[in-house]
Amino acid sequence: xxxxxxxxxxxxxxxxxxxxxxxxxxxxxxxxxxxxxxxxxxxxxxxxxxxxxxxxxxxxxxxxxxxxxxxxxxxxxxxxxxxxxxxxxxxxxxxxxxxxxxxxxxxxxxxxxxxxxxxxxxxxxxxxxxxxxxxxxxxxxxxxxxxxxxxxxxxxxxxxxxxxxxxxxxxxxxxxxxxxxxxxxxxxxxxxxxxxxxxxxxxxxxxxxxxxxxxxxxxxxxxxxxxxxxxxxxxxxxxxxxxxxxxxxxxxxxxxxxxxxxxxxxxxxxxxxx
Length: 274
Description:
Blueprint: E1 3-11, E2 14-20, H1 29-37, E3 47-53, E4 61-67, E5 72-73, H2 77-89, E6 97-102, E7 105-114, E8 117-124, E9 146-149, E10 153-158, H3 165-173, E11 183-191, E12 194-201, E13 205-207, H4 211-223, E14 230-235, E15 238-244, E16 251-255, E17 258-266, E18 272-273
Parallel strand pairs: 2-3, 4-6, 10-11, 12-14
Antiparallel strand pairs: 1-2, 1-17, 3-4, 4-5, 6-7, 7-8, 8-16, 9-10, 11-12, 12-13, 14-15, 15-16, 17-18
């Protein structure tokens, strides 16, 4: 019976199961994500992240991420930061600048290290996009908020009632305007350049935080004049610093990453050993 070593990590409460698939490949990561993410019968997480070596010279390592429902995500900012900490502190690299291959392209991580500990990570998330993809039917009359793509799609709604995330977020994820579903953010201006944000992630539901969602919120706020280009996004699980730089139009996200625990899980019947 094959046992798969894993590491549980979180970034601002956005928790994932991390597996080094360069040494421990997973035959069906979609099914594993569903079984292992179950918070009552599995390990419990927002999804499964696979760490591997990059198949292309433009990157050092690769990341694949599967949501709790088994669907594959394009990108995750919180997971990217966790991977940076994992790679450095588990001595898989000595680099403090790492190129990470994702389905949204190569992302650059800068590790802020003190006494051999990664205290925070800055991720170059690239340029935001605002054109609604062709597969999204903009004729469906959805005009509540601002669409921003950070490699994956986000719809940001500015409202005083951020706690509507449960009911409204679920409905909007599956709105006819988004046939491939969408991540939904509800944001409230707390004070200058500080936004309280709650997140509904497609394929998972309410999460404690979302890195790409924080970036999308910050960009939408700057775009609509609600905030400047440097802001603090306060989510359920913690805060992320976001800078949308004028010189290169890239969005830079800085925040923490934390280990939770290590363990082993049977690959075929989901029995966990810690």
